[in-house]
């Protein structure tokens, strides 16, 4: 099966997708601002219909996301929960400083999803508070069986793409890498994590790309992609494994 990126492409909007204040594929609304490192990446300032990807705050000026979310510029929202309501802690930044991993291949048709990870530098420091806090990233790699939490404003329905207005959370497990090898063959590599439910029904979907996989209270992965429709049985989602990129993250943050 083809491994597809989980960014919310603009073409999806044209294809009859809709918005609903509904429940998810196995997810539920997160307690507001309980994931203060969660960021949303948007094409335009005010229009929530232009969500592209998720991202994770890892320092007061730095976010981690997926390299396939790279655009000439994007709007970052921090402290966000309900996309249409102004609730107080929201912070907005226009970003142009992107640092995709140098090993990421931009040629999407080659189906090489390695090193799909990118740093974003904010133009000024984020104001930290209860609703905006960085997440430490994991230096040790997680093992299969670990319980983790994912969050995002990605699609909550796998057949007809439906986007929620509030941030959604779901508990999932790290699965054996061989299960993703079976599902995606050579497209799955050793710098990726396989996570979800083997029986399907819960997991990341379109619009969740770049968002966090939090295990033991630290960032273990960023959403890369999976099958379409998402969360089908035997097709868990795939994450870039953060523990393999600690050196590159540190070096890039130090030099820029
Ligand atoms: C992209 O990858 C495809 C499939 O491997 C290949 O045929 C094509 O030449 C590549 N394009 C570029 C610009 O490298
Ligand atoms: C993050 O890491 C720093 C330095 O290692 C540590 O002091 C801090 O307590 C950690 N924060 C959390 C929330 O684990
Ligand atoms: C995830 O699991 C934890 C611990 O079992 C539970 O407290 C939390 O409510 C769960 N969250 C979701 C979104 O299911």
From TrEMBL:
InterPro entries per record: Peptidase_S1_PA, Peptidase_S1_PA_chymotrypsin, Peptidase_S1A, Trypsin_dom, TRYPSIN_HIS, TRYPSIN_SER
Entry GO CC: secretory granule
UniProt entry keywords in alphabetical sequence: Disulfide bond, Hydrolase, Protease, Serine protease, Signal, Zymogen
Gene3D superfamilies: Trypsin-like serine proteases
First-tier enzyme category under EC: hydrolase
Superkingdom as given in the UniProt entry: Eukaryota
Reaction equation(s) it catalyzes: Preferential cleavage of Arg-|-Xaa bonds in small molecule substrates. Highly selective action to release kallidin (lysyl-bradykinin) from kininogen involves hydrolysis of Met-|-Xaa or Leu-|-Xaa
Signal peptide start-end: 1-20
Claim: Hydrolase is one of the keywords in the record: yes
Peptidase S1 domain: residues covered: 24-254
GO biological process assignments: proteolysis
Pfam families given in the database record: Trypsin (PF00089)
Annotated GO MF terms: serine-type endopeptidase activity
EC number: 3.4.21.35
Disulfide bond keyword on record: yes
Family: Belongs to the peptidase S1 family. Snake venom subfamily.
Protein's name in the database: tissue kallikrein
